[in-house]
Write a structure and sequence with these properties.
The complex is a heterodimer of chains A (about 110) and B (about 110). Chain A contains no helices and 11 strands. Chain A has about 110 residues and is mainly beta. Chain A is globular, with a radius of gyration of 14 Å. With about 110 residues, chain B is mostly beta strands. Chain B contains no helices and 11 strands. In chain B, the strands form 2 sheets. In chain B, strands 2, 4, 5, 6, 9, 10 and 11 form a 7-stranded mixed β-sheet that branches. In chain B, strands 1-3-8-7 form a 4-stranded antiparallel β-sheet, with no helix packed on it. Classes of the chains: A mainly beta (about 110), B mainly beta (about 110). At the A-B interface, strand 4, strand 5, strand 9 and strand 10 of A face strand 5 and strand 10 of B.
Chain lengths: ~110, ~110
Amino acid sequence: TQLLEQSPQFLSIQEGENLTVYCNSSSVFSSLQWYRQEPGEGPVLLVTVVTGGEVKKLKRLTFQFGDARKDSSLHITAAQPGDTGLYLCAGALRGTGGFKTIFGAGTRLFVKA
Amino acid sequence: KAGVTQTPRYLIKTRGQQVTLSCSPISGHRSVSWYQQTPGQGLQFLFEYFSETQRNKGNFPGRFSGRQFSNSRSEMNVSTLELGDSALYLCASSLVGQNYGYTFGSGTRLTVV
């Protein structure tokens, strides 16, 4: 069974603080995606990383894909209340029928003003 | 362009009944995937359809089925509903497959009583 372990599960921080969310697996992924989900809505794709060691930045968010393509991290600088939400990582595995995507359990982030 | 449209948004059904959920993907997207999201299990993959063919299937019982039409619209059906089927059902579309990430719909909240 392929698993994608995400940590921490829950994070409550003050506005202006920095944080890092981790996503780890023993599987090698073709790509890894990060999503943010707000209550009552579907997840929204933030970024896709494909190459081992790749780093992508999206304003105050920095995403890194591990060299071996088994893990990833999301770092938020100077968090704001608008960053509050459920952050999900998802890894795409190549199989005989195309790709299969598995999701981590999510990190619920709450940023207090 | 229009996003992924799921109907209905909310549904209440009684145990033993059956239900059909609908998903219209982004225009031009040929791959449609379905996920079940619950607080305890997170996002669990149900199945993926590509060009009217089921390309991948998750580990759900045969009560869960789906299909895709020639215009890429997809439906999923759950027969003999159980209380444990209460969940947010999410449809996701992508251009050719899962490797570069999905665009999700807002989901259908199914409650089985």
